[in-house]
Specification:
single chain, 205 residues, alpha/beta, 9 helices, 5 strands, globular
């Protein structure tokens, strides 16, 4: 099913750009939200994650403490790969279900998957085109720390756990520069959207 990928380094402006595309009429599939759904009690992935990482990742309510889990996986590449191997297949199944639903409703709709790890997960072939967001490294660090309350060292670990932003931009079909004002970012999104509409209408469902 034809769709576009939206990627970028953590805290690089990806969610902001996704919201701007949504305001223009795009259907957004948020991979983070799908991942959070898979960590809810009662899912098979919840049981597998707890089995692999232990009950120490649970909060008093018996739910997975995502912050604690994040501390574990961002400090250990092997454990991060294990978590991704558990969650990613379920996310991809749900993603395909959503695309089918959106395309059934409107075959020419612009469907964008907001997913940080497109290249790391080697799923770039799933998309018609890929858009990458970018901002300056010092902005990325500051935005991540402000958003999460992480220390500089913890923020750096999360940034370096992903592919370098410049490499994502090099591989992407389009780049949105999020280092300026929101108005400047919005102008880039609005300029690109008609091209996505054209491609969505021309691509087979």
């Amino acid at each position: 099913m034809a769709s576009f990928g939206l990627t970028g380094g953590i805290a690089s402006g990806k969610s902001t750009v996704a919201a701007m595309f949504a305001a223009l009429g795009a259907r957004i599939i948020d991979a983070d939200k799908l991942g959070h759904e898979q960590l809810r009690p009662g899912t098979g992935t919840f049981d597998e994650v707890v089995s692999c990482f232990g009950e120490g990742i649970l909060n008093p309510a018996g739910e997975i403490d995502r912050r604690r889990l994040g501390e574990i996986v961002f400090a250990d590449a092997g454990k991060r790969a294990l978590l991704n191997a558990i969650i990613h297949p379920a996310i991809m199944v749900r993603r395909q279900e959503l695309i089918q639903s959106y395309k059934a409703d409107d075959p020419g709709s612009v469907v964008i998957s907001d997913a940080a790890l497109i290249y790391e997960a080697h799923i770039e072939a799933w998309f018609v085109k890929i858009i990458a967001t970018w901002c300056r490294p010092e902005q990325q660090r500051a935005r991540l720390m402000a958003k999460t309350g992480l220390s500089l060292a913890a923020a750096e670990r999360r940034i370096h756990a992903q592919m370098p932003p410049d490499e994502k931009c090099r591989r992407a079909d389009y780049v949105i520069d999020c280092s300026g004002t929101l108005a400047e970012t919005r102008l880039q999104v609005e300029a690109l959207y008609p091209e996505l509409e054209r491609l969505a209408g021309a691509s087979p469902s």
